[in-house]
Amino acid sequence: MNAEIQVPSIFARYANNQTVFQVKGNTVGECLHNLGKQSPGLAKLILDKNGNLGHAYDVYINGESAYPNEMTRPVKDGDKLNIVMLIYGG
Fold first, then answer.
1. What mean pLDDT comes out for the span 61-79?
2. 33 has which bridge partners?
3. pLDDT digits (tens, 9 = 90+) for 71-87
4. C-alpha–C-alpha distance, residues 23 and 85, integer Å
5. pLDDT, position 89
6. Which residue has the higher pLDDT, 90 or 65?
7. Is the domain covering 2-85 a CATH 3.10.20.30 domain?
8. Sheet hosting strand 20-24, strand order edge to edge
9. DSSP of 6-65, one letter per residue?
10. I need a surface site. Which of 25, 36, 59, 70 has the fewest CB within 10 A?
11. Domain boundaries of the chain, sorted by first residue
12. Cα separation of 43 and 41, whole Å?
């Protein structure tokens, strides 16, 4: 499946000033790993050492959160994925 991933603009400097990527994958995890192949610097920011989505991020598929089990969520052809930074504090 072909999908589009959009990352926050503050990450553009880690991705050759790019914020939108075309990736292939049947799940969110496959799409994120293919994103990492296109932009290893970006992958280091959003994926942990085990290749899972970092705890400070969420993924939305067509405007809906993929949480929980976001890495195994299916992706359909033409889906739009957004990586969102979570804000912690209190």
1. 97
2. none
3. 999 999 999 999 999 98
4. 20
5. 77
6. 65
7. yes
8. 20-24, 2-6, 80-85, 57-61, 64-65
9. E--GGGGGGTTT--EEEEE-SBHHHHHHHHHHH-HHHHHHHB-TTSSBPTTEEEEETTEE
10. 36
11. 2-85
12. 5
